[in-house]
Amino acid sequence: MRWAGQRVDAETPGTLPGLGSIAGLVRSVTTPEFQGITFHEVLARSALNSVPGTALPFNWTVNPYRGCSHACRYCFARPTHQYLELDAGRDFDQQIVVKTNVADVLRRELARPSWRHEPVALGTNTDPYQRAEGRYRLMPGIIEALAASGTPLSILTKGTLLRRDLELLSAASAEVNVGIGLSLALGDEALRRRLEPGVPSVRGRLDLIRAVRNADLPCGVMVAPVLPWLTDSTDELDDLLAQLSAAGATGVTPLLLHLRPGVKEWFMQWLSHDHPNLVSRYTSLYAHGPNASPSYRKSFDQKLRPLLAKHGFARTSTHRTQPINGMHRPKPSQEPLF
């Protein structure tokens, strides 16, 4: 594996106890609590990833994990595992790279005189509050480092584990702008279990929205991805938006399913097993690239607009303490691995 070649023999003082201090792969770990998952613990060389030259509302990200045990069949970040010479399917779900020293490296980078305190986004690639965070607890150190340096931050997650850090995030919001975004697109719990088996329940994430709002923090919601002929009906969208409004979401950003190479194959395999009657329709709909056909997108937009207005979401999602454009993610290829 490419990242295994980053090992060096010299040890550096002050690193995490018990792991040694190797700049690269430290060890691979399996535990009974995480059946079928292997954690590859590495010492990162950098924490801040630059994403310049995009239309995104941020130029910097931090990603403490590579791969994601949420195992969403549609996850746009799957191809990033191929950079590690792992596959974009089951390896992405089960081979999780953990940057164990990410908070320490981040503190050093934020202390540089050249750092301009630009907004930093978390959750732009894989989820920082996936199950691994319960074991490694990397996010508290990251949040504290950003807030202490005067750096605004935002978090996008599906993980209800974020509730653990709400007090810390509330304290950080007194020092810097803090935004919380939640991803919730499937109101059907049975479909959720088949399509995103490692993601917390719909009810759990609705409760998280309420908890974030009770902590006086904004909570925008990514209704993404909306799945053609599975979750795109007027009734389904109406019901989901009603639930999000009742939970207190400060805005929503709906996005249609995006099927880039490396994701499309894995999703279509699931579709052929669970909904074989839709395979030909999806093949036609996504015949010319990762986006649904222009005619479908236009029709969807016309259906969506009155529903957003009905539930008070006509304006762009608000998930930060200062107004910016909606929540988006950079292309995986724009972010370095370590």
Keywords:
alpha/beta; globular; single chain; 31% helix; disordered N terminus; 338 residues
Question: How do the strands and helices of this protein lay out in sequence?
Answer:
Elements lengths: L24 E5 L8 E5 L5 E3 L9 E3 L2 E2 L23 H5 E5 L2 H9 L9 E3 L9 H5 L2 H10 L4 E5 L8 H8 L4 E6 L5 H7 L6 H13 L4 E8 L7 H14 L3 E6 L7 H11 L4 H7 L8 H17 L28
Parallel strand pairs: 2-6, 4-7, 7-8, 8-9, 9-10, 10-11
Antiparallel strand pairs: 1-2, 3-4, 5-6
Summarize the structure.
The chain is of the alpha/beta class and 338 residues long. The chain has eleven helices and eleven strands.
Description:
- Strand 10, helix 8 (234-247) and strand 11 (251-256) form a beta-alpha-beta unit.
- By secondary structure, the chain is an alpha/beta fold.
- The strands form 2 sheets. The protein has a 7-stranded mixed beta sheet with strand order 3-4-7-8-9-10-11, with helices on one face.
- The chain is globular and about 55 Å long.
- The chain has helices at 90-94, 102-110, 132-136, 139-148, 166-173, 189-195, 202-214, 234-247, 264-274, 279-285, 294-310, and strands at 25-29, 38-42, 48-50, 60-62, 65-66, 95-99, 120-122, 153-157, 178-183, 219-226, 251-256.
- 41% of the residues are buried.
- Helix 8 (234-247) crosses helix 11.
Number of helices: 11
Q: What is the averaged pLDDT score?
A: 87
Helix-strand category: alpha/beta
Task: Describe the sheet with the most strands.
Answer: 7 strands, mixed
Give the strand order, joined by hyphens, for the main sheet.
3-4-7-8-9-10-11
Uncertain spans? 1-23, 317-338
Our estimate of the beta-strand percent is 15-25%
| Helicity range | 25-40%
Please report the total strand number as a whole number. Answer: 11
Order of helices and strands: EEEEEHEHEHHEHEHHEHEHHH
Tell the overall outline: globular
Gyration radius from CA atoms, angstroms: 20 Å
> How many angstroms does the end-to-end distance come to?
14 Å
